[in-house]
Amino acid sequence: MPVKNSADQINLLKWMLEDLRKVTLEGVKHLTKEQLFTPPVENEFCIGSYIMHLAEVDLGWYETLSGEKASDDIKKRSYYNCWFDSGPDFNPPNEAPEYEEYFKTIEATRKIFLDYVSSLIDSDLDENVITKRRDGDVSIPKKWIIYHIIEHEAHTRGQMFMLIRMAGWNKSSSD
């Protein structure tokens, strides 16, 4: 029987989130400000929008898990619900954000999420939260949400890396 106040699972999930993000950022840090803002192929979002989408996901799930609202400032900085998959609220930036802004923002949103996860103990992972879906409210265990964030970033990273290769922006060609 697991120890009730253990944080072994929490520590593993935090390590996974941190490692995943490190690899994601390593794969895009060679891009220029212009490449981050230019669609890599026709009819595709720019790589910067994918980066900000990861920030947006951290904030959205933080709010769902914690019941707290993220600050308007961090939502504005991440173009929350304005850029990637935003539907009728599509309102991306008109000019390329500064190179550092992408990375400062994604670092800040992941810190918010990791700080929340750090406040949990392993037994908290089995608690459910209610989230709204198109077809009604759904009860989801916290551990599934954290797993989903890991899965989502791995998927999104694969999309970004494929688009970077398709554009010819891979590391070897930009050196």
Describe the structure.
- The chain has 175 residues and is mainly alpha-helical.
- The radius of gyration is 17 Å and the shape is globular.
- It contains 7 helices and 2 strands; from the N terminus they run H-H-H-H-H-E-E-H-H.
- The protein has one domain (8-170): Up-down Bundle (Four Helix Bundle (Hemerythrin (Met), subunit A)), CATH 1.20.120.450.
- Strands 1-2 form a two-stranded antiparallel sheet.
- Helix 1 packs antiparallel against helix 5 (99-118) and helix 3 runs parallel beside helix 5 (99-118).
- The longest helix has 26 residues, at 142-167.
- The chain has helices at residues 8-28, 33-37, 47-66, 72-77, 99-118, 142-167, 171-174; strands spanning 128-133, 136-141.
CATH topology term: Four Helix Bundle (Hemerythrin (Met), subunit A)
Tally of individual helices: 7
Number of strands: 2
CATH second-level architecture = Up-down Bundle
Strand content: 5-15%
| Highest CATH level, the class | Mainly Alpha
Taken together, the total number of domains comes to: 1
Q: Could you tell me the radius of gyration in angstroms? A: 17 Å
CATH homologous superfamily caption: dinb family like domain
Low-confidence stretches: none
Mean pLDDT: 92
Helix content: 55-70%
Distance between the termini: 53 Å
What gross morphology would you assign? globular
Order of helices and strands: HHHHHEEHH
Going across the biggest sheet, name each strand in turn: 1-2
